[in-house]
Predict the 3D structure of the following.
Amino acid sequence: MAGKIEKERAAIREEELKLAERKKRLAEREAEERSAAIAKSVLGRLDSDRLEALLARMKTLGIDEVEKRLLA
């Protein structure tokens, strides 16, 4: 009885590890896709100093305020 339970726990741990790895790979793929989208956008055409300044300003304002101002 105890052996079956331990085997089941081990199987669950293994599945959890596999799932965690899949989630990690998915997050990496999503980050790569975001980077590619940014590179293709107008932001990808900015020189690094100007891009850094713009991103710093966006960080200061917050995304909600940036969206609000862009939509105005």
